[in-house]
Amino acid sequence: MENVLKRIVKVKHGFKPIEREAKKIFELNLVKDCIALAKDFLRRDAYQIRCLAVFLLGYCASQDKKALHILKTKVSKDTSWQVQEILAKAFDHYCKEIGYENSLPVIKSWLNDTNPNICRAVTEGLRIWTNRPFFKENPKLAIDLISQHRSSESNYLRKSVGNALRDISKKYNNLIENELSKWDLSDTKVNFTYKRIVKNIT
Predict the structure, then answer these.
(1) 3 state SS of 55
(2) Would you give the DSSP letter of residue 119?
(3) Domains 1-83 and 99-202 alike in fold
């Protein structure tokens, strides 16, 4: 395993090699053992190894709630932006595995959290929302869920909100325009999010 980790640390650009290694580990081990490995990897200094851990936890989350709990309570506090990117991917993988409609209670719970990294894992992870099953048939619900963080104190989260809504505007222009018409643009944070979206609306 240490040889695998040495290879992982050498990855400087992109996440695909890390994802492939995580998949191999997941396929060769029991879920409980993958979670144990992930917990060990999360203690490592190299962000690449922590990313490996997050991929593993994402694969395990639909089969063991402990993995989802670790993603929410521990991974979300990691200071590496790379780790946060993989958290978003891991959350989406969980939703895909159990079904996006079945994931609604967890999606809403994460979006209601006070940690912006947890909220962003949802807004960013499910992009493009309206390309996902269930949300493809329910674009208004996707817009409602994402828009609740338009005035977040977190610039990081608001960027994700704006980008996610801009994605949706490409297919559901009228729905986005209707949503934006309700926003208070005198609020500087809301206006910031608004400007991330409108440059794409014709």
Answers:
(1) helix
(2) H
(3) no
- Residue 14, burial from CB neighbour count under 10 angstroms (0-12, 13-18, 19+): exposed
Fold of 1-83: 1.10.1240
pLDDT tens for the chain, 202 residues long, are: 888 899 999 998 899 999 999 999 999 999 999 999 999 999 999 999 999 999 999 999 999 999 999 999 999 999 999 999 999 999 999 999 999 999 999 999 999 999 999 999 999 999 999 999 999 999 999 999 999 999 999 999 999 999 999 999 999 999 999 999 999 999 999 999 999 999 756 5
Secondary-structure percent of the chain, ordered helix, strand, coil, rounded to 5:
70, 0, 30
Which runs of consecutive H residues, i.e. helices, occur in 42-103? 47-60, 65-73, 81-98
Beta strand segments in the chain, E:
none
Of 37, 64, 69, the C-alpha closest to 53 is 37
Cβ–Cβ < 8 Å for 67, 61: yes
d(CA 38, CA 69): 13
From CA 44, how far away is CA 159, in angstroms rounded?
A: 29
CA distance 47 to 41: 9
Domain positions in the chain? 1-83, 99-202
Which class in CATH covers the domain with range 99-202?
mainly alpha
The token pair that represents 21 in the structure block? 């290694």
